[in-house]
Amino acid sequence: MQLDTTRAIISGGASGLGLAVAECIVAAGGQAALLDVNETTGRAAETALGGRAKFIATDVTSEDAVNAAVASAAQEMGGLDVAVNCAGVGWPKRLVGKEGPMPGEFFRKVIEINLVGTLLVCKAAAVEMQKNVPNGEGERGVIIMTASVAAFDGQIGQVAYAASKGGVVGMTLPMARDLSSSGIRVVTVAPGLFLTPMMAALPVEAQDSLGKQVPFPPRLGHPPEYASLVRQIIENPMLNGETIRLDGAIRMAPR
Questions:
Q1: Distance (Å, rounded) from C-alpha 62 to C-alpha 157?
Q2: Residue 203, pLDDT score
Q3: d(CA 171, CA 182)
Q4: pLDDT for 108-118, tens place per residue?
Q5: Which residue in 80, 96, 161, 245 is a FRET match for 29, CA 20 to 30 A apart?
Q6: From start to end of 169-233, where are the E strands?
C-alpha cells in the first residue's frame, strides 16, 4: 500500500504519536480521520492538517461510538485502508502502595481504554476493510496497534499499564491470523521513551535524565520517528503478525 492513496483512521490522533502519523499521511497525499476524546485538540488538529483530515469525537471504550465513528470515517473518505491505534493512558499505581491496594476499578479502566478500546477499533476497521477490492498483493488493509516496552519490562507502578500493553502484544499474531484470509495485515509497535504530551509535561531536566537512559540515541524518541515506522509498515507487505520495539535499545529498570 502507498501513503498517497491511504485512507486512515487514527485513534488518539489529535496529539502525540497519533498526530505525527496523521501529519505523515496527509503530507504524502493521503486522508486521515482523527478519532479522539479531546474535542479541543481534535478540532485544532483538523484545522492545522487541512482538508484531507477530519476529526471525529470518539470514546474508544464505547463499542457503539467506535462503530459509528469508523463507519462515518469510511463513508467520508470513500473507504478505509489503514487503522492506527494510538489512544491510551499511562496512569501509574502500585498494586499495594501508601494509599492502600489498587482499586479493581482502576485496573479495569486502564484495560478498558488501552486494550478493549484497541480491540474495538481494530474490529470495526476490519469490517470496513473487508469491503475493499484487494490490490495486486491481495491486500485489503493494514491494522497497526501501539503497545509499549512496558509490555516486556514493566516498571514499579505499571501493573495495570503493562497488563494492558501485554494484551495488545498478545493479540497481534492471532489477530493477523484471523484476518489473513481477508488480506488484512496486523502489526504492533512497542515504543520506548517518546516525547509525547505526557512526557513534555515533565521538567526539561527530567526529560533529559530519562533520555540519557536510552543506549543510542541517548535521548527521547520523537513522534515523527514513530510515524516513519508506521509508514514502513503500511508500505511493506511482508510486515505482519509482529511486534516491533522502537526504543533505542533501552531495557527499563525496575524504577
A1: 27
A2: 84
A3: 17
A4: 999 999 999 99
A5: 245
A6: 184-191
